[in-house]
Amino acid sequence: MKKVLIHGSGQKADSWNKMLSYIENKEDFLFPSLADLLAEKPAAYPNIYHAFSNYCSFLPSPFHLCNLSHGGILALNYTIEHPDKVKSLVIIATPHQIPTFQFYFQKLIFSLLPPSFFQQMAFNKRQTLTLGKSLKDFNFRTKLHLIACPTLLLCGEKDKTSMHSLCYFQEHIKQTEYKFFPGIGHIVNEEDPQQLAEVLQQFYQSLA
Prior knowledge:
By secondary structure, the protein is of the alpha/beta class. Helices cover 43% and strands 15% of the residues.
């Protein structure tokens, strides 16, 4: 059964490479580039979600979804709309809402940064600002109760914002378990790829 890894907006698809080096049966894991799926369309969230949904429509179902940060918004949205296609969810350091202050502060910082800074991220400067604006009022919280598949919630112990969201997801999604990564911040797949690989393999084995 396929496992689809969705990177965050601050990463690229290859951010999963370190973690995958510790994984057995790597051929079961897919890690699409959101920028490649989007092609030349504007990087507004509806376009990204449509491109991701189209990608998933060609996969044999059901499949597993695993995601980091804002990639989790895609995964949660897709699972709510296509519950029959998703076998399980792994939500890593994903916000349950877009904080207003954080949004405007981040928008200000990004607008001041040079385009070269965004070369390490999923999208260029213009696309990143477009995505941020399109997510400002996005809200899936009232539909979380519709998620019925087994869901694993993960975040780094130092990532206090994500820990708050993890507690929110635990309260509003039916089948959840959670794990904290000691001494780790937001980017779990790069900060502790080996432990993440072990946790994912144990989780998927428990569902087999």
